[in-house]
Design brief:
The protein is mostly helical. Helix content is 65%, strand content 9%. It has two domains: 229 residues, Alpha-lytic protease prodomain-like, CATH 1.20.1510; 75 residues, Cation efflux protein, cytoplasmic domain (Alpha-Beta Plaits, 2-Layer Sandwich), CATH 3.30.70. It comes from Hohenbuehelia grisea. This is Cation efflux protein cytoplasmic domain-containing protein.
Length: 327
Amino acid sequence: MYRTIVRALQNSGGLQVKIAIWASLLANIALAVLQLYAAISSLSLSLFATCIDSIFDPGSNLLLFWLHKKANKLDHNKWPVGGARLETIGNIVYGFLMGSVNLVVIVESTRTLITKSNDELNDLHIASIAAVAAALGVKFLLFLYCFSLRGKSSQVRVLWEDHRNDLFINGFGILTATGGSKLAWCTFSSQHSYFLYQHPSRHAVIDPMGAIIITFGVIISWSRTIYKQFELIAGKSAPHDFLQLIIYKAATFSDEIEKVDTVRAYHSGPDYFVEVDVVMDANTPLWKAHDISQQLQDKIEVLPNVERAFVHVDHETTHTPEHRKAL
């Protein structure tokens, strides 16, 4: 999530990515205030669950933006590979923070289920429901916009996942907050209405149970995100289609390249490191072998999601692996 604005503008979707990032940040700040009002005014645990997520959104955006700027200013003598991994580390840290805060909501909701009297029902608060509904509408628009750009930037992809999660959170929060109140339109007949009002425990569990379901959904979603981010930082291989693309690029790059021996592409953070071993004739001049391999490296490095490429030239394929520690 930590691309510089300059680097984002270097690709064709740079301006769109910048709009997605800043629109999400400004919207999250405004919606955090709106949903904080909704949670405090209604005292609904379900709306508190949605509020916590909304408050964390702008805070996380600011933290990630700061890390993004810091990654761009890292000393390359001390950090030779740059700050790309900070993006992955930031996503992991944010995921753990979200999980920890939502565990607190689960504990409080459970305590409420155990200790709350059946008569202590929250009244319906129209203004708070309207505030969360407005947040739901804004999140839906941001979701659609980031969905179209999710392949252009890992930061926008994380924002898209966040907006997707918020649609579930806000929608379900509205449902359980209203269901947890004494609503006449929640009944099917006057006879059933009388029964429900005489037995409010039928409603008393809806709001805290809704909060528990929302927080469990958030924890599960971010657990999956954390797992995927760990895969990136651990060096997961690129998909087969991408490897085939690299093989094609190398095999068709120059007539001087006789064979493509080995191709590897693996994550080192959000982007790929690519290693290519090619075979040239043993009599190829050193200057020509160097120039061809350098040009091939440059061609690979301009591909989307490639951070660095390394091209190794050999004259045969019967040798032992170049590295003592075989992968």
